């Protein structure tokens, strides 16, 4: 029985899309096969597929609604065996495999052939995707940036042009499978085909290995690419760079970049809005005045009204983060005024403060706290 998608991602059914993305990103980075020890790769691959499948459904509003209503039955599009043998679309039922031999192979661990099926040799597969985390400052996320990143990946060996054979030698047809890439065992109506152990499904035998790649046809390199990160990205942003993943016979996979924005010493981010605390002296809060604020865009003057209380929040429109979708819209900056109390006072300052205290009195011209307390509980 399939596990619940919400359970796989570790989120409640009421989770917002942002929480689903955050959970997927965390788990994908944790279980990506390229980030675990060799001994754990097989298990990690299964978990990664499970996580990706769950995210693919829960991140799509229509699929999520169907899943919430009907569960896996609504998503998997189950058919009866009669429907399958009448020529149903296997690719929609079994994730892109339209050959019945492939389907039974997935079910029983080998390829079943009903006669006339093509062999494994020559079939091309796309390379694996690569995931990479890019760390940015809030300023970089605000304005966007071109960033050069370096990451490991495999590419075709240039010495042998990806064949795995030593230069000047040629590949020979595998004698075990006759170039099919598979060996077939017949048993009545069924013929079960398995990958040829001699040539590992390629249909060809290397007589002399390439010294550069030791016959693998690929070499591990450190790839350097320049990427353009748009303004407004956040921690749940994901960028896709096509063709920069692992090499494959059917083309390269893609490079997926996960954005991590570092904490800022002044600003706290809330989607497109920014928040900050502004220390203001007691005198300025009482008498009113102006304060210079350096936003991510520019330096602005903020007016402090007379009698501003500690904790008062002021809104500065358009001084927040830009819309990552490029709509030329900006969030707002929310400034919370905090009365700055001096740590120590000189003798003269203490005298003036005491004098001011006597002048203002306990209530400061308003009902005292004691009066308010008594009034509330009459």
Order of the strands making up the biggest sheet: 11-12-16-15
**pLDDT < 50 stretches:** 77-122
Structural class: alpha+beta
Task: Tell me the strand percentage band.
Answer: 25-35%
Terminus-to-terminus distance: 64 Å
* Shape category: elongated
Helix content: 25-40%
Number of H/I helices: 12
Number of strands: 16
Largest sheet: 4 strands, mixed
Structure commentary:
There is one protein chain. This protein is an alpha+beta fold and 378 residues long. It is 28% helix and 26% strand. It has twelve helices and 16 strands. It has helices spanning 5-9, 17-31, 41-58, 61-70, 72-76, 81-85, 90-93, 100-108, 138-143, 282-287, 347-360, 369-376; strands at residues 111-113, 130-136, 145-156, 171-173, 182-187, 190-195, 204-206, 218-229, 238-241, 255-261, 268-270, 273-281, 289-294, 299-304, 313-316, 333-340. The strands form six sheets. Strands 11-12-16-15 form a four-stranded mixed β-sheet. A three-stranded antiparallel β-sheet has the order 1-6-5. Strands 2-10-9 form a three-stranded mixed β-sheet. Strand 5 and strand 6 form a beta hairpin. The chain is elongated. The model is unreliable at 77-122 (pLDDT under 50).
